[in-house]
Amino acid sequence: MARGAGMDAPTDRFGRPLRNLRVSVTDRCNLRCHYCMPEEQYVWLPREELLTFEELSGLVGIFTDLGVDKVRLTGGEPLLRRGLPLLVRMLAQNPRIRDLALTTNGVLLAGHAQALREAGLHRLNISLDTLRPDRFQHLTRKDNHAQVLEGIAAARQAGFRGLKFDTVVVRGANEEEITDILEFGKKAEAEVRFIEYMDVGGATQWSPEKVFSRAEMLEVLGRRYGRIEPVVEQGSAPAERFLLPDGTLFGIIASTTTPFCRRCDRSRLTADGIWYLCLYAQDGIDLRQPVRRGISRDQIRTTIVSAWQKRNDRGAEERRALGSRGVFVPIQQLRANPHLEMHTRGG
Ligand code: SF4
Question: pTM of this prediction?
Answer without folding.
Answer: 0.94
